[in-house]
């Protein structure tokens, strides 16, 4: 089996509403690039990458000369062909590699008639649990804004009722830390049996990070995720706060993981199949974490069904997966895979059992959302449509005003 073609299509899939985060917003849609790697036996493997447009499509097309005739089984050679660690200082191809790796694993699984989790050592669980992943958001057609503690609790109740979540993650860093602490404690009061986690995407100052961490020590926390930026910043918070710390921002490769092992800063490593360059590097990293008693969880970078499948296969094979995974997935209105969005049952999603990744494209939806992308274009992830001219700093001092309700058009 040899690779003969690579195709990339950028799509824009609508969200229920624009989601606010510490560095900007998701402007009412996720822009993703769908990758198809075709082999000489007629099989097509699927991959996915965040962002997109002509530049992403051109970047994948530019990989074809590197990969024409490449055997999808040769995954270690694939890594060096695309993302040689010294050459990648100049070409930054880690996320391209991830999408191609997904597709190659999909091809191999289809060729052998086995699911990807069998290629990774075999599953140890049949489903992967997820957290509710709560956002402050702007109002959109059919969906109310989420700005106040009461609105946040109402949203969490709806998601718990619909999907069965028992873990709730609040994406913070939007409003002043004291206000978000009030929101977080409101969630804890509303769901005393459930577990909580808070993630301000590293924009808090050291003083605010310590203040927030100490103020939640009495709650049923999973962890405090990236309250401040950098391994040294996390280490200082960890030494002074009795809540486990997690990161997805500053441990995204093996050198950073080694630094965290030698000088412990984070207790939980959030493994992202895109950020780490594929599923297999995440499995390797989880093995290191198991050895050094670091917790692991599966991170979400804004997935459609293809990347969600990679997260499910990853979660299926990790014996030391001790936390519910993150997913933006329930914030989407639709998906590009056959059968529509994968369902949650009791807060979990079943691991696909079909060959390869176990998902296939709905061609009509790909065409529809490719057209939507052509109509709407991309959006600046690090800007907020309700705060013209604003941009985040690290640490941030210019938070949004929680008393102001803003209408936006995206």
UniProtKB/TrEMBL annotation:
Residue ranges constituting the Mandelate racemase/muconate lactonizing enzyme C-terminal domain according to the UniProt record: 149-244
Enzymatic class: lyase
Alphabetically ordered keywords of this record: Lyase
GO MF annotation, one: glucarate dehydratase activity
Pathway info: Carbohydrate acid metabolism; D-glucarate degradation; 2,5-dioxopentanoate from D-glucarate: step 1/2
EC assignment: 4.2.1.40
Recorded catalytic activity of this chain's protein: D-glucarate = 5-dehydro-4-deoxy-D-glucarate + H2O
SMART domains documented for this protein: MR_MLE
Classification via InterPro entries: DgoD-like, Enolase-like_C_sf, Enolase-like_N, Enolase_C-like, Mandelate_racemase_C, Mandelate_racemase_N_dom
UniProt protein name: glucarate dehydratase
